[in-house]
Amino acid sequence: MTQQTEAQRLADALDALLGYRGINADVGKAAAELRRLDEVEKAYSLLLEKTYAQHRREEMTRPPTAQLDWSLYVTCPKCDESNDLSDPQHDTEHDISNHIFSNRWERLKDWEVTCEHCNHEFKIEKVEY
Ligand SMILES: [Zn+2]
How far is the CA of 120 from the centre of ligand 1 (A)? Predict the structure, then answer.
């Protein structure tokens, strides 16, 4: 009885996993599926190990490249939401990034911003780091 319950539980698990319907009656098939799943799992583990080793080898041979990630946040004075001015919707002509990366931050004084949340237009007083 206990064995039947265990088989039933496994069959139900398979049913849930594979979407089988009506497998409950066929416990032998369920067992076969379990063995097959076990093989699939082993194969998957091997593949993961292989992929990981490949990834490690690539890391060793590829020189590290530094990635720059930048943002320039200003809070809208009307709705209090944050706007990232590095986003293309604000930096449409790349003027903002040009000023920032050429160290001419003062050129962004009085820069007009249209809030992406409420469309309120306001000006930047200054840029701080
Ligand atoms: Zn706003």
Answer: 5
